[in-house]
Amino acid sequence: KSCSHCHATSTPLWRRDPTSMKPLCNACGLYLQQRNKLRPQELIDADDDGSSSEESDANYVGPECSHCRTHHTSVWRRSKTGDQLCNACGVYARLRGKPRPLSLKRNKIRPRS
């Protein structure tokens, strides 16, 4: 499956163009819904410039978990000492009273099953 506008093959949610009923990625679908026009090529190109998440992580400037060093989480938390933690490390520490083992680290955020 691919977006009929930007040709993306991966998206958190597939949408449809209301006139043609062709599939749209989440970004193109939301842009069309909010602005009544297709997403411009500059925005599509801006999304494509990050070649891979591993390469971009090295240059990433932003929040980082003080325990597992991830940059991606649904919610940022604080430890009792004030350190910034990802959701997984923060919840694990609060419930078990000890740091989350690094062997449990995953590269993707998993939804509840």
UniProtKB/TrEMBL annotation:
The keyword Disulfide bond is annotated on this UniProt entry: no
A molecular-function term among this protein's GO annotations: zinc ion binding
Keywords: Metal-binding, Nucleus, Zinc, Zinc-finger
Cell location: Nucleus
One GO cellular component term: nucleus
Biased composition (Acidic residues): 44-57
Classification via SMART domains: ZnF_GATA
Transmembrane segments: none
Region annotation (Disordered) ranges: 41-62
All residue ranges annotated as the GATA-type domain in the record: 1-40, 59-112
Biological process according to GO: negative regulation of transcription by RNA polymerase II; positive regulation of transcription by RNA polymerase II
Record protein name field: GATA-type domain-containing protein
Organism whose genome encodes this protein: Gymnopilus junonius (Spectacular rustgill mushroom)
